[in-house]
Design a protein that fits this description.
single chain; alpha/beta; Aspartate Aminotransferase, domain 1; Aspartate Aminotransferase, domain 2; 2 domains; three-stranded antiparallel beta sheet; 40% helix
Length: 392
Amino acid sequence: MRHVYLDYSATTPVKEDVVNEMIPYFTEKFGNPSSLYAPGLEAKEGLNKARKQVADLINAEEREIFFTSCGTEADNWVLEGVADAYKSKGNHIITTKIEHHAILHTCQYLEKHGVEVTYLDVDNEGFVSPADLEAAITDRTILVSIMMVNNEVGTIQPIKELAAIAKAHGVLFHTDTVQAIGNVPVDVKDLGVDFISMSAHKIYGPKGVGALYKRAGINIPSFVHGGAQEKKKRAGTENSAGIVGFGKAAELAMNGLAEHAAHSDQLRRMLWDKIQAEISDITLNGPADFTRRHPGNLNVSFDYVEGESILLLLDANGISVSTGSACSSESLDTSHVLNALQVPPEKANGAVRFTVGDFTSEEDLDYVVEVLKKVIDTLRKLSPVNGMEGWK
């Protein structure tokens, strides 16, 4: 059976060049980077190289990069670290209603420990209002955390403008760039942010490794206690092979950014055109202006059917898509992102996220639309609400 993978926002395959870079660190370069003898120093060299590669991707300094196990850990580290380090100044954090659960659930945890959190609304395309952010800042606000690119609908936030507002009030700014790096330009100096979270497996690198960018001069407590790894800020023996893979993936992402974005955007537009031509009663979720959303993201609601049913039937035909965030795929709740965009529940339940990537071809899209048309046809014939008066 043919297999077409259209869930690049959930994870990406590891590129061959990345695998080849990692392999020696499982075998001859297996030393502990904290050891002072030759094999350890050799492993340490690999980490140092990777730190520079990741720093170069976002125009940061090497000393500002701290490796973690994933983007979620980096998110937790920032929120909990700032809440602790700046508690004498205030206890108020501002975020949005469409953040990844790594942010939302951490904020909920902090609320149980005396931190006040404001969850900003977004418009029907997922954009935060700069005016709303400014109005929400108080003299007790210590951190603003707003993701750069939404993982479900692809909305690209005006981070530079939002960070400038926070800075004008003396408030720290964090942005989760897990969906942004490798897909849109990310320059921490231009953006004016204090922290960003990153993950390797979204940019054709390995799972189990991420990074936190912390602007030089800002101090937050260690997140994991123990040894002196990561400049005494994140204890634990480093995942050398994973970090080296992240570094190589970052280098490839930086060098191929324009080509990757153009390829993804072309295929995404092609997929949308084909779906519109073949299937009726559909709605695009997220920004209508494709230049304002992740270049490979397409989130579509299909009337009269459920997204889970579409996903399962597509999977039976060798096609992998998502009904929302991969991190909440076991939940039957309507997407919190689509709820925040005020997408009606019946349409939110029929939403499917397609995300294309470097290994997607035009022939893949032809096959997907051919199968998708049959799947929607079949499900609508079985749907008790199809054609029901007042459904919309």
